[in-house]
Amino acid sequence: MSIIFQIAVYFLDFILLMMFVAFIMSWIDPTRRFGITRFAFDVVDPIVDPIRKIIPPIGFFDVSFIIAFILLRVVIGFLESTGGGVRSII
After folding, report:
1. DSSP string covering 22-74, please?
2. How far is CA 10 from CA 46, 53, 57, 73, 76, in A?
3. Distance, CA of 15 to CA of 3 (rounded, Å)
4. CB of 40 closer than 8 Å to CB of 25
5. Residues of the chain with pLDDT under 70
6. pTM listed for this prediction
7. How far is Cα 48 from Cα 56, in angstroms, rounded to an integer?
8. Domain residue ranges of the chain, discontinuous segments joined by +
9. Which of 22, 28, 30, 89 is the most buried (most CB within 10 A)?
10. CA 49, 82, 7, 87 torsion: positive or negative?
């Protein structure tokens, strides 16, 4: 069962990494011209959009990224505590 938890943690780590990339690229490439920007937002948007509907961006600051990041870290922490020694890389 530990391998399932490990795969889940690595998948969530990948999503967290893509959230970081999307957050940075939103300043560098706001029109999403680069492929990495489009890919990062394609991965992140299904997670962030429901939160964004509840809490809209405040000016130029998008709080939904922070809330989604914290929620994913909580889920990873839960998986680490129940997964039998699985550790996150982020």
Report:
1. HHHHHHH-TT--SHHHHHHHHHHHHHHHHHHHHS--BTTB-HHHHHHHHHHHH
2. 18, 27, 29, 12, 9
3. 18
4. yes
5. 1, 83-90
6. 0.80
7. 11
8. 2-82
9. 22
10. positive
Q: What is the largest CA-CA distance in the chain?
A: 45
Residue 89 DSSP SS3: coil
The one-letter amino acid code at 61 reads F
Contact 44, 26 (CB under 8 A): no
**How much is the pLDDT for 83?**
67
Per-residue CA distances from 84 to 3, 5, 8, 71, 78 (Å):
10, 8, 13, 21, 11
* Interatomic CA distance for residues 62 and 10, integer angstroms: 25
Closest CA to 89 of 2, 11, 3: 11
